[in-house]
């Protein structure tokens, strides 16, 4: 017997935009402090790594520690 479920996910786009902007600033600061005298592709990969890590950490902190979720699952229902 196959069970099919429907899941709706709500995003708080204002909070996600703010966290993205803060992650860009954190990544730029980390690049300025820790990466010096490298080639452009090393700057770019380091920027992406710092950005992704800081965005994931900030979303997890908001969702679980601060209890101000970036994304929620308000409906979980069985499909007909």
Description:
The chain has 80 residues and is α+β, with helices and mostly antiparallel strands. It has one domain. The protein contains 2 helices and 2 strands; from the N terminus they run E-H-H-E. The protein has a two-stranded antiparallel sheet with strand order 1-2. Helix 1 packs across helix 2.
In terms of topology, how is this protein built?
Layout lengths: L4 E7 L1 H22 L5 H26 L5 E8 L2
Structural class: alpha+beta
| Residue runs with pLDDT of under 50 for 5 or more positions | none
Instruction: Count every helix, treating DSSP H or I runs of 4 or more residues as helices.
Output: 2
Strand content: 15-25%
* Biggest pleated-sheet summary: 2 strands, antiparallel
Strand order of the largest sheet: 1-2
Number of strands: 2
**Total number of distinct structural domains:** 1
* Radius of gyration of CA atoms, rounded to a whole number: 18 Å
Compute the separation of the termini in Å.
13 Å
- Broad shape: elongated
Element string (H = helix, E = strand): EHHE
Q: Give the integer mean of the pLDDT values.
A: 89
The share of residues in helices is 55-70%
Give the key terms:
alpha+beta; two-stranded antiparallel ribbon; 2 helices; 80 residues; single chain; 60% helix; 2 strands
In short:
The chain is of the alpha+beta class.
């Amino acid at each position: 017997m196959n069970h099919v479920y429907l899941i709706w996910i709500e995003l708080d786009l204002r909070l996600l935009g703010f966290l993205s902007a803060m992650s860009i600033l954190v990544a730029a600061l980390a690049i300025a402090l820790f990466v010096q005298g490298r080639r452009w592709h090393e700057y770019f990969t380091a920027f992406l790594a710092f950005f992704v890590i800081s965005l994931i950490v900030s979303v997890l902190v908001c969702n679980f520690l601060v209890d101000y979720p970036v994304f929620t699952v308000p409906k979980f229902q069985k499909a007909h």
